[in-house]
């Protein structure tokens, strides 16, 4: 039986009636109804094509034929839970291990980044027997209660900060406390974590973990200063804690030069636990925690079985293996490096022409453009950022979104097949819109995108 086709107005009316209103749509004033997709392109019900600069989940491209073929073939053969012995889960774990430092060699498969981060927190606590967690300001690690508690981006709007949670300054060298002019911002920001550890110890409490995205995303597409992670890890280890790297947004070659974003911090740095998610299944719910033999052993020693009904099932692992194949066969890491560098170069040139562009930052296909009302004060240009997003969608059929504490950063995390021509088109369109804003001194209306 074919699925019923609804007019856009009917779909929207039914969504408003049936789906919780806290589940928000992109472009809420005039949502785009997407009915199919391929590569870096989305198509609406009228067959209009949109360039997708948002969907980092669809890592190797929407509806990649190799992924859909692998999924259908395995689904037609077998899908069951991981308590049955099967090749796919061990073959997939082996392939993942080959991309990671040698000590990260034990894997737990789950279904989402939130599940992965929740499990990472459990592993850290079981191993250290400590409770307190240090996180970065503006961080977001997932929607479970345990993760809302360690996500300042969320808990500040809800119940507030728990006694066992400690917030370190976001290592933002553009608008943070230590900026680009500082001789060693990595050390300075790391020392702020050391100060927090000392304050925690004065209260008679102990550090369980430092928990951070390898490249803070919700914080505004932040690139951590060199030396930061290794120094923080040293301080945390000295306090008896572990370092958890959240790679849910940034893993699987998005940064181009490396397979994992934490590797940007140098060969001397290796987290104790790494969480993987979003791009892992190219849209299929698949996520994972990678850790050491020692930490996994402590988790086993508690005598309680860990079982995840769908985690590591044969279909999910077949899809995960296919994603790794496509990344390699199509040189998507290389593409991310080349196209990302071109995009960043074009945006940096645009910055010279438009005073409203305060900063351009990023690596590979993880790029942010921070808009400001004035470069001296670096006042966030939140409303203009929203206007740019709105006009790109309406005039150019380009999907871009904003991030950062003030929603003033245009963020680019497109599918990894994003091309040079796509980068050039996006920058040309942003240039035109900013010229128009400046020429007409437009006053964008406040509205939610």
From TrEMBL:
GO-annotated molecular function: lyase activity; pyridoxal phosphate binding; transaminase activity
Keyword Lyase attributed: yes
Keywords: Lyase, Pyridoxal phosphate
Protein name: 5-phosphohydroxy-L-lysine phospho-lyase
A Pfam family: Aminotran_3
Family the entry assigns: Belongs to the class-III pyridoxal-phosphate-dependent aminotransferase family.
GO terms for cellular component: mitochondrion
InterPro entries tied to this protein: Aminotrans_3, Aminotrans_3_PPA_site, PyrdxlP-dep_Trfase, PyrdxlP-dep_Trfase_major, PyrdxlP-dep_Trfase_small
UniProt keyword Lyase, yes or no: yes
Needed cofactors: pyridoxal 5'-phosphate
């Amino acid at each position: 039986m074919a699925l019923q086709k609804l007019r856009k107005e009917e779909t929207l009316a039914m969504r408003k009636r049936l789906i919780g209103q806290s589940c928000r749509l992109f472009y809420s004033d005039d949502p785009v109804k997407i009915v199919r997709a391929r590569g870096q392109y989305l198509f609406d019900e009228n067959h209009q094509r949109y360039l997708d600069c948002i969907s980092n989940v669809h890592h190797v491209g929407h509806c990649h034929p190799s992924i859909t073929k692998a999924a259908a073939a395995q689904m037609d053969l077998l899908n069951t839970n991981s308590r049955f012995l099967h090749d796919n889960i061990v073959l997939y774990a082996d392939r993942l291990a080959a991309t990671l430092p040698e000590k990260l060699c034990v894997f737990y498969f789950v279904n989402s980044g939130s599940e992965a981060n929740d499990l990472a927190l459990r592993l850290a606590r079981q191993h250290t027997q400590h409770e307190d967690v240090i996180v970065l300001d503006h961080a977001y690690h997932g929607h479970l209660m345990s993760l809302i508690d360690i996500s300042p981006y969320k808990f500040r709007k809800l119940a507030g900060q728990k006694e066992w949670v400690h917030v370190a300054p976001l290592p933002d060298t553009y608008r943070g406390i230590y900026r680009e002019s500082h001789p060693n911002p990595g050390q300075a920001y790391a020392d702020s974590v050391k100060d927090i550890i000392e304050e925690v110890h004065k209260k008679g409490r102990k550090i369980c973990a430092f928990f951070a995205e390898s490249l803070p995303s919700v914080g505004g597409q932040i690139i951590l200063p060199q030396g930061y992670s290794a120094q923080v890890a040293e301080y945390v280890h000295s306090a008896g804690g572990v370092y958890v790297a959240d790679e849910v947004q940034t893993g699987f070659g998005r940064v181009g030069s490396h397979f994992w974003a934490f590797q940007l911090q140098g060969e001397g740095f290796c987290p104790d636990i790494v969480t993987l998610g979003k791009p892992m299944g190219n849209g299929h719910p698949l996520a994972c925690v990678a850790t050491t033999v020692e930490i996994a052993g402590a988790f086993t020693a508690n005598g309680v079985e860990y079982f995840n009904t769908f985690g590591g099932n044969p279909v999910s692992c077949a899809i995960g293996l296919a994603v790794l194949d496509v990344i390699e066969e199509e040189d998507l890491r290389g593409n991310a490096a080349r196209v990302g560098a071109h995009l960043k170069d074009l945006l940096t040139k645009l910055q010279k022409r438009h005073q409203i562009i305060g900063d351009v930052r990023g690596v590979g296909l993880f790029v942010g453009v921070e808009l400001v009302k004035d470069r001296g004060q670096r006042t966030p240009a939140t409303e203009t950022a929203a206007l740019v997003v709105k006009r790109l969608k309406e005039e150019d059929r380009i999907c871009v979104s904003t991030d950062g504490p003030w929603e003033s950063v245009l963020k680019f995390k497109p599918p990894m097949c994003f091309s040079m021509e796509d980068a050039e088109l996006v920058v040309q369109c942003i240039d035109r819109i900013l010229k128009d804003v400046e020429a007409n001194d437009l006053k964008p209306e406040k509205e939610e995108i």
